[in-house]
Amino acid sequence: MAVQIIAVGQKMPQWVEQGFADYAKRFPRGQSIQLVEIPVAPRKSAQPVERLQQQEAERILKQRQSGSLLIALDERGKQWSSREWGEHYRDWQQNRPRVDLVLGGPDGLHPDLLSRADLRLSLGRMTLPHGLARVVLIEQLYRAWSLSQGHPYHRE
User: Fold this and answer.
1) If I label 6, which of 31, 54, 94, 119 is the partner at 20 to 30 A Cα–Cα?
2) Could you please report the per-residue DSSP string of the chain?
3) How confident is the model at residue 47 (pLDDT cuts 50, 70, 90)?
4) Using CA atoms, how far apart are residues 118 and 54, in angstroms rounded to an integer?
């Protein structure tokens, strides 16, 4: 299974890049984890938020692989426990060759992109800075992988 995280935003602080890289390298060679950064649409005073979201959505969808499971990270999405992440991850490994997870820009994801998503997930009820959300997401993916493999990383 190949996992692609498509995230709006570039030039993250070093701690974000280091945190992401630390978890990415923990995955075994057979588990592909890729980060694709999408530029934030330029914020001009006269442009409506929906147009900015649409520009970002178009860039996001260009990165999506045909037939992938599209998961949008959204504050109104389902919230899973770590165990539930592990159960779904195991299912993805068996039934999905490719999973694309999308983190939106400062204004969130465009409604059309959200409606196209196979699943909407939330990392929690708190608002997280984009960089921190990336690190939390990849840590949770690593935890899910470890649970799916019976690896001792997750402790109760």
Assistant:
1) 94
2) -EEEEEEE--S--HHHHHHHHHHHTTS-TTSEEEEEEEPPPP--TTS-HHHHHHHHHHHHHHHPPTTPEEEEEEEEEEE--HHHHHHHHHHHHHH-SEEEEEE-BTTB--HHHHHH-SEEEES-SS---HHHHHHHHHHHHHHHHHHHHT-TT---
3) confident
4) 18
Q: Could you read off the pLDDT of 107-149 as tens digits, one per residue?
A: 899 999 999 999 999 999 888 888 999 999 999 999 999 998 8
Q: Which amino acid is at 5?
A: I
Nearest to 101 by CA among 147, 39, 36, 52: 36
Q: What is the pLDDT of residues 24-40, one digit of tens each?
A: 999 998 888 999 999 98
DSSP string, 45-90: TTS-HHHHHHHHHHHHHHHPPTTPEEEEEEEEEEE--HHHHHHHHH
What confidence tens digit (pLDDT) does each residue in 54-65 have?
999 999 999 998
